[in-house]
């Protein structure tokens, strides 16, 4: 008989607490305005960037990069490089956010 997966509630809570702490730090960090604007983009605005290809995964990756950049106070040039590494779609989405568009 196969071993059953046992859920580690304590580990989950520890991981969740750490994630929430990092998220708070990000939203209070260097790029908090950029994060707020990015989080405010609608699905329709993202669809307009890539008609027929709603890539919410790329949008989520972009938010993750900006969150971490904010949390660690990453320099703008490095943030720009990280966004470029995500690809053209991520750059296009970033350019829809006025405060991120200025770094391109």
Q: What would a concise description of this structure say?
A:
It is built from seven helices and no strands.
Task: Give a written overview of the molecule.
The chain has 104 residues and is an all-alpha fold. The chain has a domain at 53-104. Helix content is 70%, strand content 0%. The chain has 7 helices and no strands. The chain has helices at 9-27, 32-39, 43-49, 56-71, 76-86, 88-95, 98-101. The longest helix is centred in the N-terminal third of the chain and has 19 residues, at 9-27.
Q: Helical residue percent?
A: over 70%
Average the pLDDT over all residues and give the rounded result. 88
Q: Which structural class is indicated by helix and strand composition?
A: mainly alpha
- Helical element count? 7
What spatial form do the alpha-carbon principal axes imply? globular
How big a fraction of the residues is strand? under 5%
Low-confidence stretches: none
Our Rg estimate from Cα atoms comes to: 17 Å
Largest sheet: none
N-to-C CA distance:
57 Å
User: How many extended strands?
Assistant: 0
Give me the strand/helix succession.
HHHHHHH
